[in-house]
């Protein structure tokens, strides 16, 4: 395509340069024949220039169209070369048209201006020649201007393509740009391009102008004071503010863990305010003047944003390590280990500030991709060195402590996973840099920094939220006592309120952390941009235009892990901490926990797929597949799933109920998504599909009344004293510890016949599960009392068939 558009331009340009002298000579002969004047300069008409300009404009339009559909860096690189070649061709055409324009101007000068009024009139031939020359000069001016516009447009397009290539380096992670050991990586230093040198020279000149402007007589004193204030605040501000903080914390806050968490939070905030304030004062010293350039202003904003993020890392290191106050250290880190790690946050923040500033300046001045890759590669290398060196130093210090007989801190599983993950990512960054995948190394570097920062902030804020909730509602604090007496609450209500408040705070913090993990970018994301990214996460891209990029895949994995962890933690909190403090029965609590876990799991899966780039309103193929699957083999599973939801919402049976279904009787232990577990009296378990509880008759012995009934029917001879036997039976029931006093035990005269008297004695127990054991104990006691009183039971009658053809009289056994 490039050759097709290049050929017409070369042909038109060659024709213009070849035939224009001949055409000019012919025009000169005609003019001499007509006017017989002393003018020897021919009239020039640039016949082929419009065709050449049209070809150049068409090439520019085609390159723009190709840029909009380019998919990879190789295509963008080729289009950038075409744009630069087009700029050169347009410049060549403009240069070729300049001599023609000078010739026409020379002829106009020879003719001179038109005669004034009253002077001798010119011949018609001279008037026509002047008119033609002026028209030719105007046409050449327009053509030269158009060629310059095409050249400018091509250069701007090349700069835009370079910007697109720099932006593509953040998403096209599987792009091999060359190893850091190769010569191409270091070419930005060894042999910088003239364009980069020109851009950096212009940027450096604007920085010099801003410096000289800041120290002009009218601005000199203010600039000096701002720089001195920035230096003093940056070096001594944190140390000065730490003194009143350490003095006020134990005096203003109640005794407890809130002192430690608040001190860590306040230390981080002091560091951010002092270093960020110092950076703002430094930037203000050069950007407050009205005549400052846009590059200087944007550089000042960039310095402030990067300083805030770097200060956040330093502040997190100071608050978590707490070298000056080891007794208030929030995490369980041994003091030698903390001192070993003290220098790493400062070194890491310095790397981030320096190379973040380099990358920002590269984007600001529009440097080449080679310079951008060099800055990204060096920043990734140094951050990876820090990330790998810190765990090595920690392990060495722990081994040293063990060798000296000291016991290091007990490392939790989560801390071990973070330690391992940091080492693995640092190793992956090294490998990516060595084999030439610098965009991948940059992505891993920024993800490591951002995820680590968010986790550290979440750790501090979550501890402070929990400690604040417990301190606010603690009966031993002034606030807790005030709430207790003013609202007439007991300790159980205060504990429940503290648990609920801490849960709400932790949930909000987790949501914010997940939002930051999905939308953050090296600390330079504004709140508005972050909100837009969160909205885009929920929108997805849709399967019809599905474009899953590695950044989205990593975000989906992060959200899946975080969501699963949050769901497990919330389920454990509900089951062990919050719901037991309420007055709900055990079955209701189990149903709520199961329903919460099922809904939470579905939401985590849906949101994970949305983060991956899937829009749910376009999942027509999934709906079709599910319809076919349900029709052929999933209908039972779906029926049991829906039945399980009905059981959890309507609660005809619940966990802990004693039910009988299909000849099986047992206690409900768990209601799962597909089936319900019944525990029988012999401790065995029966799995019953949920749909059977909806479609069959179920006997629930504990649904309406949790009490059980122990009834025993006895047959006595006709010659007994019914009143005495009745009193004996009631006495036996009242003496048993399981029989409740209300309702009282009772004896019913059930039957009177020739075989004897049938008396039924009834008593209530606390649960149907103890009926069988209670009846057994009562039978032992009743038989004992009847023997002591000399009362016998009636004889039962049975029918014996001696001959199948002849019935015999009944006999007594």
TrEMBL record:
The chain crosses the membrane at residues 221-241, 262-282, 302-321, 347-365, 371-392, 413-438, 450-473, 494-518, 548-567, 588-613, 619-638. Gene3D superfamilies: 1.10.287.1260, 2.30.30.60, 3.30.70.100. The keyword Cytoplasm does not apply. It comes from the Bacteria. Residues 145-201 form the DUF3772 domain. Residues 1-26 form the signal peptide. Residues 714-792 form the Mechanosensitive ion channel MscS C-terminal domain. Keywords: Cell membrane, Membrane, Signal, Transmembrane, Transmembrane helix. Its main location: membrane. Residues 637-702 form the Mechanosensitive ion channel MscS domain. It is found in: Cell membrane. It is a multi-pass membrane protein. The keyword Membrane applies. Belongs to the MscS (TC 1.A.23) family. This is Mechanosensitive ion channel protein. It comes from Rouxiella silvae.
């Amino acid at each position: 395509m490039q050759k097709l558009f290049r050929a017409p331009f070369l042909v038109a340009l060659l024709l213009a340069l070849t035939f224009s002298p001949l055409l000019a000579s012919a025009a000169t002969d005609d003019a001499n024949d007509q006017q017989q004047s002393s003018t020897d300069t021919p009239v020039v008409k640039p016949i082929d220039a419009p065709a050449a300009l049209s070809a150049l404009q068409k090439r520019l339009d085609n390159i723009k169209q190709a840029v909009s559909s380019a998919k990879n860096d190789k295509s963008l690189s080729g289009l950038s070369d075409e744009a630069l070649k087009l700029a050169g061709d347009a410049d060549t055409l403009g240069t070729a048209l300049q001599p023609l324009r000078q010739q026409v101007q020379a002829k106009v000068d020879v003719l001179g201006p038109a005669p004034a009024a009253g002077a001798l009139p010119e011949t018609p031939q001279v008037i026509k020649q002047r008119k033609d020359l002026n028209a030719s000069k105007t046409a050449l001016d327009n053509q030269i201007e158009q060629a310059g516009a095409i050249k400018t447009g091509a250069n701007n397009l090349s700069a835009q393509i370079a910007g697109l290539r720099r932006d593509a380096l953040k998403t096209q992670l599987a792009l091999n740009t060359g190893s850091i050991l190769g010569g191409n990586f270091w070419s930005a230093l060894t042999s910088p391009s003239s364009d980069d040198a020109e851009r950096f020279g212009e940027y450096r000149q604007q920085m010099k102008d801003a410096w000289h402007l800041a120290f002009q007589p009218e601005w000199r004193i203010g600039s000096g004071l701002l720089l001195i204030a920035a230096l003093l605040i940056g070096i001594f501000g944190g140390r000065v503010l730490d003194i009143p903080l350490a003095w006020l914390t134990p005096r203003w806050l109640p005794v407890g863990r809130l002192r430690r968490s608040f001190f860590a939070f306040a230390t981080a905030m002091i560091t951010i305010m002092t270093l960020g304030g110092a950076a703002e004062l430094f930037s203000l010293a050069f950007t407050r003047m009205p005549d400052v350039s846009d590059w200087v202003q944007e550089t000042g904003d960039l310095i402030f944003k990067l300083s805030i993020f770097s200060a956040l890392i330093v502040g997190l290191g100071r608050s978590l390590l707490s070298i000056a106050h080891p007794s208030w250290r929030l995490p369980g880190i041994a003091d030698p280990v903390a001192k070993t790690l003290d220098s790493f946050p400062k070194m890491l923040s310095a790397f981030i500030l320096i190379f973040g500033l380099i990358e920002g300046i590269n984007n600001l001045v529009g440097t080449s991709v080679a310079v951008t890759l060099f800055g990204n590669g060096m920043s990734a290398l140094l951050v990876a060195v820090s990330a790998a060196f810190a765990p090595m130093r920690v392990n060495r210090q722990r081994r040293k402590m063990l060798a000296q007989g000291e016991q290091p801190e007990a490392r939790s599983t989560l801390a071990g996973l973070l330690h391992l993950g940091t080492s693995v990512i640092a190793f992956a960054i090294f490998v990516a840099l060595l084999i030439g995948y610098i965009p991948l190394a940059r992505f891993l570097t920024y993800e490591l920094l951002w995820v680590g920062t968010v986790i550290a902030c979440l750790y501090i804020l979550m501890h402070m939220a929990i400690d604040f909730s417990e301190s606010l509602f603690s009966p031993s604090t002034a606030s807790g006592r005030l709430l207790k007496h003013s609202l007439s609450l007991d300790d159980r209500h205060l504990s429940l309120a503290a648990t609920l408040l801490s849960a709400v705070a932790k949930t909000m913090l987790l949501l914010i952390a997940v939002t930051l993990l999905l939308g953050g970018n090296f600390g330079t994301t504004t709140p508005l941009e972050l909100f837009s990214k969160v909205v885009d996460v929920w929108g997805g891209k849709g399967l019809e235009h599905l474009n899953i990029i590695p950044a989205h895949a990593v975000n989906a994995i992060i959200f899946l892990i975080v969501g699963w962890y949050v769901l497990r933690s919330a389920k454990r909190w509900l089951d062990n901490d919050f719901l037991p403090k309420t007055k709900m029965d055990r079955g209701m609590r189990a149903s709520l926990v199961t329903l919460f876990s099922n809904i939470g799991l579905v939401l985590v899966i849906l949101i994970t797929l949305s983060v991956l780039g899937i829009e749910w309103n376009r999942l027509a193929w999934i709906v079709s597949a599910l319809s076919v699957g349900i029709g052929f083999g999933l209908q039972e599973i779906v029926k049991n799933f829906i039945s399980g939801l009905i059981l959890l919402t309507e609660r005809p049976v619940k966990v802990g109920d004693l039910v009988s279904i299909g000849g099986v009787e047992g206690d409900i232990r768990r209601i799962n998504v597909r089936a319900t577990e019944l525990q029988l009296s012999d401790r065995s378990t029966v799995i019953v599909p949920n749909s059977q509880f909806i479609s069959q008759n179920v006997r629930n012995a504990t649904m309406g009344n949790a009490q059980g009934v122990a009834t025993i029917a006895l047959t006595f001879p006709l010659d007994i004293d019914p009143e005495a036997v009745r009193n004996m039976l009631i006495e036996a029931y009242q003496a048993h510890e399981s029989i409740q006093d209300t309702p009282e035990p009772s004896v019913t005269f059930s039957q009177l016949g020739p075989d004897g008297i049938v008396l039924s004695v009834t008593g209530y127990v606390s649960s149907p599960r103890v009926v069988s054991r209670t009846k057994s104990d009562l039978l032992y006691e009743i038989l004992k009392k009847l023997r002591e009183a000399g009362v016998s039971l009636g004889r039962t009658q049975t029918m014996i068939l001696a001959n199948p053809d002849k019935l015999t009289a009944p006999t007594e056994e």
